[in-house]
Amino acid sequence: MYDREFHFVWSAAKYFGVPAAARDDVVQDVFLTAYRRFDQVHYQVSARAWLYGVTRRVASHWHRGVARRTRRIAALGDLTGHVGEALQERHDAARLLERLLAGLPRGTREVWS
What we know:
It is a single chain. This protein is an all-alpha fold. Helices cover 79% and strands 0% of the residues. It has helices spanning 2-15, 20-37, 47-80, 87-102, 106-112. The model has no long low-confidence stretch (mean pLDDT 84).
């Protein structure tokens, strides 16, 4: 089945919007699912139609996972507040803070350090 239907599943994954970089992984997941569930298939439809449905579900899960990771990364950026800053700006801010702390009396400086 793999040899016969690989190109069809790969094309279906492309049709469902899976980018080329992730398409091989999605196709592999489709055939792993097919292998695990092969004994449950009652060929009321053709193997190709069944694989099309499996590919649709796996692609949907992949898209959902990408959206979830994107939201998590965005939330992390909101928490840190440093995602958009350039490294040079962060370096300059740290140097300025060191100069300001150096001008404070020793006891006060230790509280802030």
